[in-house]
User: Fold these one by one.
Assistant:
Number 1:
Amino acid sequence: GESVGLHLPTLSVQEGDNSIINCAYSNSASDYFIWYKQESGKGPQFIIDIRSNMDKRQGQRVTVLLNKTVKHLSLQIAATQPGDSAVYFCADLHGSGNTGKLIFGQGTTLQVKP
Amino acid sequence: DAGVTQSPTHLIKTRGQQVTLRCSPKSGHDTVSWYQQALGQGPQFIFQYYEEEERQRGNFPDRFSGHQFPNYSSELNVNALLLGDSALYLCASSLGGVNSPLHFGNGTRLTVT
């Protein structure tokens, strides 16, 4: 069946280090991927997205890499800060024209040590 | 510019009762999706509304129903509540027709006792 999975449930990093959160997906037809950050008591917050015609996209302190060959994507956070502590979800969109549904992974909890 | 707003923030209901949750989309958005998030899990897609019609549905029973109003706001109704319906219910809005990010509200925490 369709699924999106993250490699590690918890990632602990030192403040100032770079963080890498990984995600694998199973649907070869997926062509749009989104990373969300969810803090305690809040809804998921959009971080960055990438379409299947790209293999890399950069934002402010974040980079998403997409490897369609092995159906893997990653989120890199540069100079991780305490405010980055949260649960991170990757999601892929099934369907086109935004008529589809987002399939979320289980999430990776990022803990930033001061 | 208000983001996605949901009400109420918390709700406690008894098994067998019915509940209605409300959502106002982000300004300019015309599509509303509802998700259920159990503790420690990723959100699960319930359904999506566009032009006041249910456009796509996830694997949820008919006890879950919804509605979208002409102003794009939406309601989620759950009948005959079960203990297992306890979860965070998230509303997300987006622009229909184009693959674009969904913007989420902070959810309604439903507890069924």
Number 2:
Amino acid sequence: DGGITQSPKYLFRKEGQNVTLSCEQNLNHDAMYWYRQDPGQGLRLIYYSQIVNDFQKGDIAEGYSVSREKKESFPLTVTSAQKNPTAFYLCASSSARDTTPLHFGNGTRLTVT
Amino acid sequence: DQQVKQNSPSLSVQEGRISILNCDYTNSMFDYFLWYKKYPAEGPTFLISISSIKDKNEDGRFTVFLNKSAKHLSLHIVPSQPGDSAVYFCAAGGTASKLTFGTGTRLQVTL
């Protein structure tokens, strides 16, 4: 079965620590994305990558970093510079064509205390 | 600046009746619109989409209507079923790589 795997499902960290969220896809999609969901807010785009070794900032990239060394993988690092890191993080992918919908993983809930 | 708005945070509908979820957008450059359904602690799943060259798209119980002049789209679910209870997000974009999502509407289908 093709899909997007995000791990872990729940993650707890102390303030001041960097943490990396994993996202792997076996859909052979070229493009991958990271979104953040907060209560009462829509999904906000953090970073996206349309091709290996290239990525662009989304609307709320500050305090985050990504890499895209392999087509299948797009890890997101939440750094200590992110002021409000506690949130539900969603990874998505799509083929490069403009009118294809995004496929989402099941998310990682990060809690920073 | 909220470019995509879902003004109703929640909606309750009886089983068998029609559910109508609404979405407004401000960016006239948007030409691709989607609806996603989301259960708690899961990722959103794609439901239905429409491009700006159409004003209606149907898929089984789900129909999306687009009114470009009013910058408004709606999702109709007929008949509503208890399994439809979820949060529904509308999304809009000029290309699929830069989708802007609304804040979601929680639909509760009651027996």
